[in-house]
Protein backbone atom coordinates (compact mmCIF):
# COMPACT_ATOMS: atom_id res chain seq x y z
CA UNK A 1 0.00 0.00 0.00
CA UNK A 2 2.84 2.33 0.92
CA UNK A 3 4.69 1.61 -2.36
CA UNK A 4 1.58 2.35 -4.34
CA UNK A 5 1.17 5.74 -2.64
CA UNK A 6 4.85 6.52 -3.24
CA UNK A 7 4.63 5.69 -6.96
CA UNK A 8 1.55 7.84 -7.37
CA UNK A 9 3.31 10.77 -5.66
CA UNK A 10 6.36 10.34 -7.91
CA UNK A 11 4.20 10.31 -11.02
CA UNK A 12 2.43 13.45 -9.81
CA UNK A 13 5.74 15.25 -9.25
CA UNK A 14 6.96 14.23 -12.71
CA UNK A 15 3.76 15.47 -14.30
CA UNK A 16 4.01 18.81 -12.46
CA UNK A 17 7.66 19.19 -13.54
CA UNK A 18 6.77 18.50 -17.18
CA UNK A 19 3.96 21.05 -17.01
CA UNK A 20 6.35 23.62 -15.51
CA UNK A 21 8.95 22.87 -18.20
CA UNK A 22 6.31 23.28 -20.90
CA UNK A 23 5.37 26.66 -19.46
CA UNK A 24 9.01 27.91 -19.41
CA UNK A 25 10.00 29.86 -22.55
CA UNK A 26 12.40 28.14 -24.92
CA UNK A 27 15.48 30.45 -24.94
CA UNK A 28 16.91 29.03 -28.16
CA UNK A 29 13.59 29.38 -29.92
CA UNK A 30 13.17 32.97 -28.76
CA UNK A 31 16.74 33.85 -29.80
CA UNK A 32 16.13 32.34 -33.22
CA UNK A 33 13.01 34.45 -33.67
CA UNK A 34 14.88 37.62 -32.68
CA UNK A 35 17.68 36.83 -35.12
CA UNK A 36 15.19 36.18 -37.92
CA UNK A 37 13.36 39.43 -37.21
CA UNK A 38 16.61 41.41 -37.18
CA UNK A 39 17.71 39.72 -40.40
CA UNK A 40 14.39 40.56 -42.04
CA UNK A 41 14.63 44.20 -40.90
CA UNK A 42 18.22 44.44 -42.16
CA UNK A 43 17.22 42.96 -45.50
CA UNK A 44 14.34 45.45 -45.74
CA UNK A 45 16.69 48.33 -44.92
CA UNK A 46 19.24 47.04 -47.44
CA UNK A 47 16.71 46.75 -50.27
CA UNK A 48 14.85 50.04 -49.69
CA UNK A 49 17.75 51.98 -48.21
CA UNK A 50 19.91 51.12 -51.21
CA UNK A 51 17.54 53.27 -53.27
CA UNK A 52 16.80 56.03 -50.76
CA UNK A 53 20.16 56.27 -48.97
CA UNK A 54 22.71 54.56 -51.24
CA UNK A 55 26.09 53.71 -49.72
CA UNK A 56 29.51 53.35 -51.32
CA UNK A 57 32.60 51.99 -49.60
CA UNK A 58 34.69 52.63 -52.72
CA UNK A 59 35.39 56.34 -52.45
CA UNK A 60 38.72 58.03 -53.12
CA UNK A 61 39.96 61.49 -52.17
CA UNK A 62 41.20 63.31 -55.27
CA UNK A 63 43.32 66.39 -55.92
CA UNK A 64 45.34 67.79 -58.81
CA UNK A 65 48.59 65.85 -59.26
CA UNK A 66 51.05 67.86 -61.34
CA UNK A 67 54.38 66.53 -62.62
CA UNK A 68 57.28 68.90 -61.91
CA UNK A 69 59.18 69.14 -65.18
CA UNK A 70 62.16 71.47 -65.77
CA UNK A 71 62.09 73.66 -68.88
CA UNK A 72 65.88 73.70 -69.20
CA UNK A 73 68.47 70.93 -68.90
CA UNK A 74 71.40 70.64 -66.53
CA UNK A 75 72.73 69.10 -63.33
CA UNK A 76 70.77 69.78 -60.15
CA UNK A 77 72.95 71.98 -57.95
CA UNK A 78 70.61 72.55 -55.00
CA UNK A 79 67.50 70.84 -53.62
CA UNK A 80 65.41 73.01 -51.32
CA UNK A 81 62.36 70.77 -50.80
CA UNK A 82 62.40 66.98 -50.35
CA UNK A 83 59.57 64.48 -50.59
CA UNK A 84 56.37 64.76 -48.53
CA UNK A 85 56.92 68.43 -47.73
CA UNK A 86 54.38 71.23 -47.87
CA UNK A 87 55.24 74.24 -50.04
CA UNK A 88 53.80 77.64 -50.86
CA UNK A 89 53.21 79.00 -54.34
CA UNK A 90 56.49 80.26 -55.79
CA UNK A 91 58.77 78.38 -53.36
CA UNK A 92 61.94 77.13 -55.05
CA UNK A 93 61.91 73.33 -55.19
CA UNK A 94 65.31 72.74 -56.74
CA UNK A 95 67.89 74.61 -58.77
CA UNK A 96 69.75 73.59 -61.91
CA UNK A 97 73.38 74.63 -62.31
CA UNK A 98 73.10 78.05 -63.93
CA UNK A 99 76.71 78.73 -64.90
CA UNK A 100 76.21 77.92 -68.57
CA UNK A 101 73.06 80.03 -68.66
CA UNK A 102 74.82 82.95 -66.96
CA UNK A 103 77.44 82.86 -69.72
CA UNK A 104 74.70 82.92 -72.35
CA UNK A 105 73.19 86.01 -70.71
CA UNK A 106 76.56 87.77 -70.65
CA UNK A 107 77.19 86.86 -74.28
CA UNK A 108 73.78 88.17 -75.33
CA UNK A 109 74.34 91.40 -73.38
CA UNK A 110 77.66 91.94 -75.15
CA UNK A 111 76.07 91.43 -78.55
CA UNK A 112 73.34 93.92 -77.69
CA UNK A 113 75.87 96.53 -76.61
CA UNK A 114 77.85 96.04 -79.82
CA UNK A 115 74.68 96.46 -81.85
CA UNK A 116 73.91 99.66 -79.93
CA UNK A 117 77.38 101.04 -80.56
CA UNK A 118 76.92 100.48 -84.29
CA UNK A 119 73.96 102.89 -84.32
CA UNK A 120 75.13 105.08 -81.47
CA UNK A 121 72.27 104.24 -79.08
CA UNK A 122 72.05 103.18 -75.43
CA UNK A 123 70.39 99.76 -75.10
CA UNK A 124 70.34 99.31 -71.30
CA UNK A 125 66.85 100.73 -70.77
CA UNK A 126 65.29 98.84 -73.67
CA UNK A 127 66.90 95.58 -72.54
CA UNK A 128 65.43 95.99 -69.04
CA UNK A 129 62.01 96.80 -70.48
CA UNK A 130 62.12 93.78 -72.79
CA UNK A 131 63.10 91.49 -69.88
CA UNK A 132 60.15 92.78 -67.84
CA UNK A 133 57.79 92.15 -70.75
CA UNK A 134 59.06 88.59 -71.30
CA UNK A 135 58.71 87.78 -67.60
CA UNK A 136 55.15 89.13 -67.54
CA UNK A 137 54.22 87.00 -70.56
CA UNK A 138 55.78 83.88 -69.00
CA UNK A 139 53.91 84.52 -65.74
CA UNK A 140 50.63 84.81 -67.64
CA UNK A 141 51.19 81.45 -69.35
CA UNK A 142 51.83 79.76 -65.98
CA UNK A 143 48.77 81.34 -64.38
CA UNK A 144 46.55 80.44 -67.34
CA UNK A 145 47.63 76.79 -67.10
CA UNK A 146 46.65 76.73 -63.43
CA UNK A 147 43.43 78.63 -64.14
CA UNK A 148 42.34 76.17 -66.82
CA UNK A 149 42.17 73.40 -64.20
CA UNK A 150 40.18 75.63 -61.85
CA UNK A 151 37.71 76.70 -64.56
CA UNK A 152 37.16 73.06 -65.52
CA UNK A 153 36.27 72.30 -61.89
CA UNK A 154 33.94 75.30 -61.83
CA UNK A 155 31.99 73.84 -64.76
CA UNK A 156 31.66 70.57 -62.85
CA UNK A 157 30.48 72.46 -59.78
CA UNK A 158 33.34 71.19 -57.61
CA UNK A 159 34.38 74.74 -56.69
CA UNK A 160 32.24 77.81 -56.18
CA UNK A 161 31.96 80.74 -58.55
CA UNK A 162 33.67 83.02 -56.03
CA UNK A 163 36.77 80.80 -56.03
CA UNK A 164 36.87 80.91 -59.82
CA UNK A 165 36.33 84.68 -59.79
CA UNK A 166 39.45 85.10 -57.65
CA UNK A 167 41.38 83.16 -60.29
CA UNK A 168 39.93 85.39 -63.01
CA UNK A 169 41.14 88.37 -61.00
CA UNK A 170 44.67 86.92 -60.96
CA UNK A 171 44.56 86.44 -64.75
CA UNK A 172 43.29 90.00 -65.27
CA UNK A 173 46.10 91.37 -63.10
CA UNK A 174 48.67 89.38 -65.10
CA UNK A 175 47.23 90.74 -68.37
CA UNK A 176 47.45 94.31 -67.02
CA UNK A 177 51.07 93.68 -66.14
CA UNK A 178 51.74 92.70 -69.76
CA UNK A 179 50.03 95.85 -71.02
CA UNK A 180 52.16 98.03 -68.74
CA UNK A 181 55.33 96.17 -69.69
CA UNK A 182 54.57 96.57 -73.40
CA UNK A 183 54.05 100.30 -72.92
CA UNK A 184 57.38 100.62 -71.11
CA UNK A 185 59.13 98.58 -73.80
CA UNK A 186 57.71 100.70 -76.62
CA UNK A 187 58.75 103.88 -74.78
CA UNK A 188 62.28 102.56 -74.34
CA UNK A 189 62.44 101.62 -78.02
CA UNK A 190 61.38 105.12 -79.06
CA UNK A 191 64.25 106.58 -77.04
CA UNK A 192 66.66 104.56 -79.17
CA UNK A 193 65.82 106.83 -82.05
CA UNK A 194 64.72 105.93 -85.53
CA UNK A 195 68.01 104.26 -86.39
CA UNK A 196 68.03 102.02 -83.36
CA UNK A 197 64.32 101.30 -83.06
CA UNK A 198 64.10 99.29 -86.25
CA UNK A 199 67.66 98.09 -86.46
CA UNK A 200 67.57 94.32 -87.10
CA UNK A 201 70.82 93.71 -85.22
CA UNK A 202 69.43 95.35 -82.10
CA UNK A 203 66.13 93.50 -82.38
CA UNK A 204 67.88 90.15 -82.84
CA UNK A 205 70.19 90.88 -79.90
CA UNK A 206 67.22 91.82 -77.72
CA UNK A 207 65.45 88.54 -78.54
CA UNK A 208 68.58 86.54 -77.80
CA UNK A 209 69.12 88.33 -74.50
CA UNK A 210 65.50 87.84 -73.45
CA UNK A 211 65.69 84.11 -74.19
CA UNK A 212 68.96 83.79 -72.27
CA UNK A 213 67.50 85.58 -69.22
CA UNK A 214 64.35 83.47 -69.38
CA UNK A 215 66.37 80.24 -69.46
CA UNK A 216 68.44 81.46 -66.52
CA UNK A 217 65.26 82.16 -64.56
CA UNK A 218 63.99 78.68 -65.39
CA UNK A 219 66.98 77.07 -63.67
CA UNK A 220 65.05 77.77 -60.46
CA UNK A 221 62.08 75.37 -60.50
CA UNK A 222 59.23 76.68 -58.35
CA UNK A 223 55.99 75.34 -56.89
CA UNK A 224 53.02 76.18 -59.16
CA UNK A 225 50.67 76.69 -56.17
CA UNK A 226 50.24 75.75 -52.51
CA UNK A 227 50.63 72.01 -52.14
CA UNK A 228 52.79 69.04 -51.25
CA UNK A 229 55.85 67.53 -52.89
CA UNK A 230 54.97 63.86 -52.58
CA UNK A 231 57.62 62.11 -54.64
CA UNK A 232 61.24 63.19 -55.04
CA UNK A 233 63.98 60.61 -55.40
CA UNK A 234 66.74 62.78 -56.87
CA UNK A 235 69.87 64.25 -55.35
CA UNK A 236 72.38 66.97 -56.08
CA UNK A 237 74.31 66.07 -59.22
CA UNK A 238 71.39 64.37 -60.96
CA UNK A 239 71.10 65.46 -64.57
CA UNK A 240 67.65 66.93 -65.13
CA UNK A 241 66.71 66.76 -68.78
CA UNK A 242 64.28 69.28 -70.24
CA UNK A 243 60.78 67.81 -70.21
CA UNK A 244 61.67 64.94 -67.85
CA UNK A 245 59.58 64.55 -64.68
CA UNK A 246 61.63 65.11 -61.53
CA UNK A 247 58.99 65.34 -58.77
CA UNK A 248 55.26 64.87 -58.21
CA UNK A 249 53.33 67.84 -56.88
CA UNK A 250 49.89 67.57 -55.23
CA UNK A 251 47.93 70.80 -55.20
CA UNK A 252 46.05 71.61 -51.99
CA UNK A 253 43.86 74.27 -53.57
CA UNK A 254 40.88 71.99 -54.17
CA UNK A 255 39.98 68.49 -53.00
CA UNK A 256 37.01 66.33 -53.95
CA UNK A 257 35.82 62.70 -53.71
CA UNK A 258 35.13 60.18 -56.46
CA UNK A 259 32.85 57.38 -55.20
CA UNK A 260 31.78 54.27 -57.11
CA UNK A 261 28.06 53.56 -56.56
CA UNK A 262 26.27 50.43 -57.70
CA UNK A 263 24.20 50.90 -60.82
CA UNK A 264 20.94 49.89 -59.15
CA UNK A 265 21.55 52.53 -56.44
CA UNK A 266 21.51 55.48 -58.83
CA UNK A 267 17.77 55.56 -59.54
CA UNK A 268 16.96 58.33 -57.06
CA UNK A 269 20.38 59.96 -56.81
CA UNK A 270 20.62 63.44 -58.33
CA UNK A 271 22.82 66.51 -58.41
CA UNK A 272 23.01 68.53 -55.15
CA UNK A 273 21.83 65.62 -52.96
CA UNK A 274 23.53 65.85 -49.56
CA UNK A 275 26.09 63.24 -48.52
CA UNK A 276 28.09 62.26 -45.46
CA UNK A 277 31.74 61.33 -46.01
CA UNK A 278 33.96 59.26 -43.71
CA UNK A 279 37.70 59.46 -44.35
CA UNK A 280 40.13 56.78 -43.24
CA UNK A 281 42.61 59.60 -42.66
CA UNK A 282 40.26 61.25 -40.12
CA UNK A 283 38.60 58.52 -38.02
CA UNK A 284 35.85 59.76 -35.73
CA UNK A 285 34.94 62.70 -37.98
CA UNK A 286 32.08 63.08 -40.45
CA UNK A 287 32.31 65.52 -43.36
CA UNK A 288 29.22 66.86 -45.08
CA UNK A 289 29.09 67.35 -48.82
CA UNK A 290 26.91 67.16 -51.89
CA UNK A 291 26.67 65.41 -55.24
CA UNK A 292 28.27 67.25 -58.15
CA UNK A 293 27.81 64.85 -61.05
CA UNK A 294 26.84 61.24 -61.77
CA UNK A 295 28.83 59.20 -64.29
CA UNK A 296 27.09 58.12 -67.49
CA UNK A 297 29.52 55.47 -68.67
CA UNK A 298 32.29 53.01 -67.83
CA UNK A 299 34.93 51.27 -69.89
CA UNK A 300 34.25 47.56 -70.37
CA UNK A 301 34.99 46.65 -74.02
CA UNK A 302 38.63 45.54 -74.15
CA UNK A 303 38.59 44.43 -77.78
CA UNK A 304 40.61 46.35 -80.37
CA UNK A 305 39.11 47.90 -83.51
CA UNK A 306 38.55 45.17 -86.08
CA UNK A 307 38.43 42.36 -83.53
CA UNK A 308 35.39 40.41 -82.46
CA UNK A 309 34.10 41.21 -78.98
CA UNK A 310 34.88 38.78 -76.16
CA UNK A 311 31.90 38.31 -73.80
CA UNK A 312 32.74 38.34 -70.10
CA UNK A 313 32.21 35.01 -68.37
CA UNK A 314 30.50 35.13 -64.97
CA UNK A 315 32.67 34.00 -62.05
CA UNK A 316 29.84 33.05 -59.69
CA UNK A 317 26.16 32.23 -59.55
CA UNK A 318 25.38 35.96 -59.08
CA UNK A 319 26.67 38.71 -61.36
CA UNK A 320 28.78 41.50 -59.91
CA UNK A 321 26.97 44.85 -59.88
CA UNK A 322 28.31 47.48 -62.23
CA UNK A 323 29.52 50.65 -60.52
CA UNK A 324 29.52 54.22 -61.81
CA UNK A 325 31.61 57.13 -60.59
CA UNK A 326 29.85 59.91 -58.68
CA UNK A 327 31.74 63.17 -58.03
CA UNK A 328 31.25 64.71 -54.59
CA UNK A 329 32.41 67.97 -53.07
CA UNK A 330 33.03 68.89 -49.44
CA UNK A 331 30.94 71.62 -47.85
CA UNK A 332 33.67 72.51 -45.38
CA UNK A 333 36.98 70.72 -45.56
CA UNK A 334 40.37 71.60 -44.08
CA UNK A 335 42.42 70.26 -46.97
CA UNK A 336 45.61 71.71 -45.51
CA UNK A 337 45.21 69.37 -42.56
CA UNK A 338 43.86 66.17 -44.09
CA UNK A 339 45.02 66.04 -47.70
CA UNK A 340 45.52 62.44 -48.79
CA UNK A 341 45.35 62.06 -52.57
CA UNK A 342 43.95 58.58 -53.23
CA UNK A 343 42.88 58.12 -49.60
CA UNK A 344 39.88 55.86 -49.00
CA UNK A 345 36.43 57.14 -48.08
CA UNK A 346 33.00 55.73 -47.24
CA UNK A 347 30.01 57.69 -48.49
CA UNK A 348 26.26 57.70 -47.89
CA UNK A 349 23.90 59.86 -49.94
CA UNK A 350 20.47 61.16 -48.88
CA UNK A 351 18.09 61.33 -51.84
CA UNK A 352 15.21 63.06 -50.08
CA UNK A 353 13.34 63.68 -46.82
CA UNK A 354 12.96 60.06 -45.74
CA UNK A 355 13.00 60.37 -41.96
CA UNK A 356 13.29 56.70 -41.02
CA UNK A 357 15.87 55.72 -43.60
CA UNK A 358 17.82 58.96 -43.22
CA UNK A 359 17.96 58.33 -39.47
CA UNK A 360 19.17 54.77 -40.06
CA UNK A 361 21.75 56.20 -42.45
CA UNK A 362 22.97 58.63 -39.79
CA UNK A 363 23.26 55.69 -37.38
CA UNK A 364 25.31 53.79 -40.00
CA UNK A 365 27.59 56.82 -40.33
CA UNK A 366 28.05 57.11 -36.57
CA UNK A 367 28.97 53.44 -36.24
CA UNK A 368 31.34 53.41 -39.21
CA UNK A 369 33.16 56.58 -38.30
CA UNK A 370 34.35 54.89 -35.11
CA UNK A 371 34.98 51.56 -36.84
CA UNK A 372 37.43 53.47 -39.05
CA UNK A 373 39.74 53.56 -36.00
CA UNK A 374 40.00 49.79 -36.34
CA UNK A 375 39.92 49.11 -40.07
Account of the 3D structure:
The structure is a single chain. The chain has 375 residues and is an alpha+beta fold. Helix content is 47%, strand content 22%. Helix 2 (27-52) crosses helix 9 (355-371) and helix 4 packs across helix 7. The strands form two sheets. Strands 1-8-11-10-9-12 form a six-stranded antiparallel β-barrel. The chain has a four-stranded antiparallel sheet with strand order 5-4-2-7, with no helix packed on it.
How do the strands of the widest beta sheet line up side by side?
1-8-11-10-9-12
The stretches of 5 or more residues where confidence is low (pLDDT under 50) are none
Q: Give a count of the beta strands, DSSP E runs of length 2 or more.
A: 12
Largest sheet: 6 strands, antiparallel, barrel
Shape verdict: elongated
How helix-rich are the residues, as a percent range? Answer: 40-55%
Our count of helices gives 9
Mean pLDDT: 81
What CATH calls the topology of the domain at 47-64 and 250-310 and 320-371 is Elongation Factor Tu (Ef-tu), domain 3
What is the CATH level 1 assignment of the domain at 47-64 and 250-310 and 320-371? Mainly Beta
Sheet-strand content, in percent, reads: 15-25%
| Secondary-structure element pattern, one letter each | HHEEEEHHHHHEEEEEEEHEH
- Report the CATH architecture of the domain at 47-64 and 250-310 and 320-371: Beta Barrel
Distance between the termini: 75 Å
- The rounded Rg comes to 35 Å
Amino acid sequence: MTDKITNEATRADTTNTEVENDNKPDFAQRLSKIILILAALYFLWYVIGDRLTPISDQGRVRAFVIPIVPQVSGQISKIYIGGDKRVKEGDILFEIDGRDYNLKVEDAQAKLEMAGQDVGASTAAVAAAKARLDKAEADLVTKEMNASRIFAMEKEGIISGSDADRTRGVITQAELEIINAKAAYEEAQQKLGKAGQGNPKIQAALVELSKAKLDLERTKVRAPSDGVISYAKVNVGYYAAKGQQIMSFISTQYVWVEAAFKENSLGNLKKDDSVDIILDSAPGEVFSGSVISIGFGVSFDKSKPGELPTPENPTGWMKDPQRFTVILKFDNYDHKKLLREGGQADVIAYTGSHFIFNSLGKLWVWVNTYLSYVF
